[in-house]
Amino acid sequence: MKKIFLSLCLLGVISNASSQEFANAPKPFGPVPTQKQIDWQEMEFYAFVHFSLNTFTNKEWGYGDESPELFNPSQLDVRQWARVVKEAGMKGIILVAKHHDGFCLWQSAYTERSVKNSPWENGKGDLVKELAAACKEYDLKLGLYLSPWDRNHPQYGKPEYITYFRNQLKELLTNYGDVFEMWFDGANGGDGYYGGANETRKINSLTYYNWDETYKLIYSIAPKTLVWGVGPSEARWIGNEEGRAGKTNWSLLRQKDELAGKVHYTEFMSGHEDGEKWVPGEADVSIRPGWFYHSVEDDKVRSLDEMVDIYYESIGRNATLLLNLPVDRRGLVHENDEERLKELVATIKADFKKELLAGTKIQASNTRGVDSNFGPQNVVDGNKNTYWATDDKVKQATIEFTFNKPTAINRILLQEYIKLGQRVKAFSVEANVNGQWKTIANETTIGYKRILRLDRVTASAIRVNILDAKAGFVINTIEAYNAPTFVKEPQILRDKNGLVTIKSEEGNAVYYSLDGKNPSEKSTLYKTPFIYNKAVEIKAISRNTKEKINSAVKTAKYGVSKEKWKVISVSSGDDKSVERIIDGDANTDWGFGNDENKLPQTVVIDMGELVSIKGFTYTPQQVGNNLNLISNYELYTSVDSFYWDKQSEGEFSNIKHNPIEQIKSFTAVKARFLKFVATAAVGKAQTVSIAEIGVVE
């Protein structure tokens, strides 16, 4: 059996043997990966760690004026990070060594804005050094993130800062051992402290850093380091922060166009079929809504459903998966995050427990030179360096697997031999069910790895049809599995009047609890929507009654319902539809502001009674291509709508690329009225939208 390189499952056994050279072996076609890129792609799954001053200021992006003295974790244990990562099957950790606020987690010789001026370990600590040692102990690779943008540095935007930036690169790449990936964020330039200037500084991210020279510096110091992000990188962002690659995903990129500013980031999800350079995709996502830790997100860890989808839509779509773990104020990976990782590991491991094609009869419609060295048996031989190949001009062919007896399957895994390039443009999968061939999948690219989740079929045979390719193709692996039935969590909804609706997949029963206890099939059976307008924690499960399998527990927390809420004034926009912002439905939205009614724009809400609150939430528009996102805000409260107190102001950091519910906390106050002011928008627009405004009680 060819064991899959599923980092997550710890199943893979990777051969180090070199592929045997044959006289009539296929030649490389188009751009091909370097060995460094192949080694990187074979890691498949690794961790991101965001932990810095933002963890202690409750921000996503620091402004650059925060005191280093705030950094003081009480139980910092990088060995715990490494253990959690290793047990999840991940192969490395990329640490955010310096984020946009400029605070450094190592003892940099070039700035005082670092751990040296924090109370942690009396200013003697070096977090990068400690993590490097932990990675070595747990056989993990170390990667580093160094923000090009520095909102603290007084010289940012000037040539002097580039010298500073490169000096810090030298420190990180020479003092901590091998670095498998250097991560450069695309967020560059904007408002900041800048040594006290408190101004906005715009730069051209393609030219300011002189990336060609910066990359030469990196490779001269650390030739084994793969560089990701801005500039002539060796791997690309996948174009979203949801961890999802496109169904079509080429490892190629028109990088010359990208460096000329001619490629929109949304194209990164699929890459370019005609790209001139091998630049595979890396899908990054946080296990929580935010990248840094916020205690209000302890109950908002991504569901098991979503984590499983992310796995299949990243690693299963020819990308690597970079999963962020926001280390908490103690300096630990939170137990809720660790628990979700364990559930994910168990699910994926069960999905790929037994491979089903190794014992089948295999035949192909074409084999290169009628040479058994390139025969179809190679796709199940467990050797990553052998492959089934066709003649050069053959761009369509079929490989068929016949079982000894009808066999149930619902997963197909395929891999191209990418050392010779990515070639397949379209393929299908058929199953022979009761003597009839039935198409069960029509897909496009394969690349390093493609995993298909299919409806379960019981087949006497299956065949994979390569329908179109750039050249004669080279298929390294084809595998099939019968994964256990996965029951998706139910969806819990509550409207402004307190009406609770719980939805599940058709045919599944739903059980729920209102007392905070995990439900079982002995709990209350959901039948119809019901009213519950008090503060409550609802927990629910879906149950496949036929197979007696339960979903993971879905949890939804609600404060007192918004039935008494009403919008009493708006500075612009349609006052007839403004109630959408308090209807409890994030899929409805309302907009205000335009070229005649420029920002700032205001909306005032009456909550109907005096309420004790300690924060507010803004959910941006969720549907559409242009989400009209608010970037900066002010929030005021009042008990009488005459006298107002400002409770919060600032920015919704990173909302452009992560347009999720924004949660802002403040000291608890009693209020009846809210005044929300949109002071600026993403992209300097004048029209902004709101899907929902809420409060944290």
Automatic annotation (TrEMBL):
Residues 1-19 form the signal peptide. Residues 345-483, 553-695 form the F5/8 type C domain. This is alpha-L-fucosidase. Its EC number is 3.2.1.51. InterPro entries: FA58C (IPR000421), Fn3_assoc_repeat (IPR026876), Galactose-bd-like_sf (IPR008979), GH (IPR017853), Glyco_hydro_29 (IPR000933), Glyco_hydro_29_N (IPR057739). It holds the Pfam family F5_F8_type_C. Belongs to the glycosyl hydrolase 29 family. SUPFAM superfamilies: (Trans)glycosidases, Galactose-binding domain-like. Keywords: Glycosidase, Hydrolase, Signal. It is an enzyme of class 3 (hydrolase).
